[in-house]
Amino acid sequence: xxxxxxxxxxxxxxxxxxxxxxxxxxxxxxxxxxxxxxxxxxxxxxxxxxxxxxxxxxxxxxxxxxxxxxxxxxxxxxxxxxxxxxxxxxxxxxxxxxxxxxxxxxxxxxxxxxxxxxxxxxxxxxxxxxxxxxxxxxxxxxxxxxxxxxxxxxxxxxxxxxxxxxxxxxxxxxxxxxxxxxxxxxxxxxxxxxxxxxxxxxxxxxxxxxxxxxxxxxxxxxxxxxxxxxxxxxxxxxxxxxxxxxxxxxxxxxxxxxxxxxxxxxxxxxxxxxxxxxxxxxxxxxxxxxxxxxxxxxxxxxxxxxxxxxxxxxxxxxxxxxxxxxxxxxxxxxxxxxxxxxxxxxxxxxxxxxxxxxxxxxxxxxxxx
Length: 369
Known about the structure:
With 369 residues, this protein is mainly alpha-helical. It folds into 4 domains: 75-155, DNA polymerase, domain 1, CATH 1.10.150; 164-227, Orthogonal Bundle (DNA polymerase, domain 1), CATH 1.10.150; 248-305; 309-367. It contains 19 helices and 2 strands. The longest helix is centred in the N-terminal third of the chain and has 27 residues, at 15-41. Residues 155-164 have low confidence and may be disordered.
């Protein structure tokens, strides 16, 4: 009973509310009927356009379609287009065009340099599209220049024939000439790098060393590997491994000592008069302890090669030795003023000219005359 009373209370309309709903329903129904009658009795009148108006509309629609198809141009591409509006272009062959002409065609110094560098490393432009692959060449820039690229077909054919006429023969990379390297199929750039490697770096000790040359990839190496002829009697050993007789070039070539360190070792040895122990190598200026440790295991030492100095010589001679300091020179001079000269090594040791720690280092380099 309670639920029925609640529903009746909320959904029962009084007279005023009933009238308002009926009026609203009448208005809605009248609007619908009026709309239907209007569509039935009133026909749409055609719009009369002049020929000029019609053409203008068609042109407008065409422009809209064209605008939709044109790709977006970023600021750099817009700059390139404006730049080429002021450049007078001409036909060119990227295989032969000079650096200055490339810059006249709108290429930057870097872009033109990349083209020249590509050619110097043996690269060739066989198709127009090859030019687009040059690093830093913009696609929009290539599109503008593409109609002006004229490749010399006869040169391509002769280049192809040259590749077919490559000769293969046994060669020693330590003695072969640059022209012979080109006959083997190396580019001028690769051939020059081989010559530079053996002149400025080191000789070729084994076949695989050819791969260390800049510009020689694994494919090129494999095509030449069977023709590399390094004589078995090639000088692969140093004249000596005795540290007091060895030369700087041998330290570099056979013991893989860094160039600066090798010359520092020899200079220090010459100033000392020779090495007495292997541990003295660690005293070399800015010595790399890793390289020195490796070298110590590979060398021998013979103290009999040491060049000794006479302690009774002039101070100028004594000053040149790394182990004799100014305080030692002063003590030597003071001693000789009183005793004129040293007569034995024991006398030097007992004179107090050198401290015990100093004496153990200098004693192998002194004599009495």
